[in-house]
Design a protein that fits this description.
- It is a single chain.
- A three-stranded antiparallel sheet has the order 3-5-4.
- It contains seven helices and five strands.
- Helix content is 61%, strand content 10%.
- It is mainly alpha-helical.
- It is globular, with a radius of gyration of 17 Å.
- 25% of the residues are buried.
- The termini are far apart.
Length: 187
């Protein structure tokens, strides 16, 4: 992860690489400190974030095609490889994806031979997810693909500007997560 442009939380866990999750983060950050962003500025900003997100997905889809992975599945594999034995529920919370989507993606990855799911011996209600050797072999290529994309989109920015982007994204992600957690507490 060293040359990936990743955003880490305070415990050092990977949030996402520079693009993943930015749309959700900004969509909720405005409410985070209760400041109102002028309506006219929001569509342009979100348009650019959305374009970056879609381009990143297309780029990864092309690159990962040889591995028969979708542009969304690489994130699952990175997290499962980094945390062998993670539960499906933990993975859902970690990547902010609905549990049913996690189950569907893991089922596909299991069919392709990338992960193995087993019942938790301590709690049969939990499903533990483990990477296979195929996943471990694919991981360096996945990380290289992510790092390549990040380098390409950051081209032309100084190191200081890159650091600023990283810090702004961290703040947006923190705000988005805080808002989501507050909403979950109310449910």
């Amino acid at each position: 992860m060293g040359n990936e442009f990743s955003v880490l939380d305070r415990e050092g866990n990977l949030y996402y690489n520079i693009v993943a999750g930015a749309t959700v983060a900004f969509a909720t950050v405005c409410a985070g400190d209760r400041k109102i962003v002028e309506e006219k500025n929001m569509p342009s900003f979100m348009k650019h974030v959305g374009e970056i997100w879609r381009c990143a997905n297309l780029y990864r889809m092309e690159k990962l095609e040889t591995l028969e992975l979708s542009s969304y599945q690489d994130s699952y594999l990175v997290h499962v490889c980094d945390r062998p034995g993670i539960t499906q529920e933990q993975l859902s919370k970690l990547i902010y994806v609905h549990k049913s989507n996690v189950a569907r993606q893991l089922s596909s990855l299991e069919e392709k031979g990338y992960v193995e799911r087993r019942p938790d011996p301590c709690d049969k209600r939990n499903i533990l997810v483990f990477p296979t050797e195929k996943a471990r072999r694919a991981l360096p290529f996945i990380r290289e693909t992510r790092a390549e994309w990040n380098a390409l989109i950051l081209d032309g920015l100084s190191q200081t500007e890159q650091d600023q982007v990283r810090e702004y994204l961290r703040i947006l992600a923190d705000n988005a997560k805080r808002i989501l957690e507050k909403d979950r507490e109310r449910e």
